[in-house]
Amino acid sequence: MAAELRCVADALLPGSVGDIAPVEVAGVAYLGFETAAPLTGDPLRAVSVLSGIQALYLRAGDEHGELLRPVALDRPDRFPSDLVTILKYQGKTNEQFTRLLLTVTAMATAWPERYLDGTMTVLDPMCGRGTTLSTAITLGLDVTGIDLDAKDREAYQAFLSTYLRQHRIKHRLTSGAVRRSGKTLGHRFDVELAADKDDYKAGRVQHVTYLGVDTTRLQGLLPAGQTNVVVADTPYGVQHGSHGDRLARSPLDLLDAALPGWVRALRTGGAVGLAVNRHVAARAAVTDLLARHGLTVVEAGGYGGLRHRVDASIDRDIVVARKG
Q1: At what angle do helices 283-292 and 251-265 cross, to 10 degrees?
Q2: Could you report the per-residue pLDDT of 198-207, keeping only the tens digit for each?
């Protein structure tokens, strides 16, 4: 979480956060960081968005020694975390990692503050059963997901519809076909929702779209230059992705075919964040590929410290690149 905090601090609190390092207090490990002043207002909200944060304390002391004074978090979340955690299935990406990926990518854009005020737009072009979609919804963001697997689309539609109904969240869900040039390419569903009933009545709603189409063939399906953030948890070495003439087995081949459509949808100043397995897609190869598609890889600050081992077969890293 130290690298994530550095990404957030550099984007939203430039010059305000000093050293970030693990500390131990009374035998308990914490992540410590220094600020020029106690956190309140927007700075507190920025720290509260971190993927792994459970509690925040101000280090203080008196005649009895060092003390930790609790600081109430100011989370930007508009919905409970169970929206992200309830749906279980084999191969689901860890929920905390999904939020980490979304957060550090949002911080690399020209408008990181929009991540906190709910005005950022998100695209997950390999969305599967919607962990990223649910994470974005929780944060109050508009989000579009793309995946050709009909079972994944149907499972997420059923889950989201049931969740919204059981939690009495005002919404409207519609579904239909995805067409281009008179041809049906797949199916879709769209949801309008709001955490607050008055917001829903006033038309202040979030938008969720799921397109059941091939992510490498998006021409004409997404508006150009409207998305702030594109995030994707890329294949880790199993069959996945494009159902064209054949399944694309190589993550790099799949990315090369899909990136033109993703970049076209991305607004100038927006960012792409990719989770990759270094065993099947070396970081250098991914950065070269992103550069060939006109993106500038972000290496400074915390962006070089996001690599971590999942298990013997997955050496996971996050590569973030900016458009323009």
Answers
A1: 40
A2: 999 999 999 9
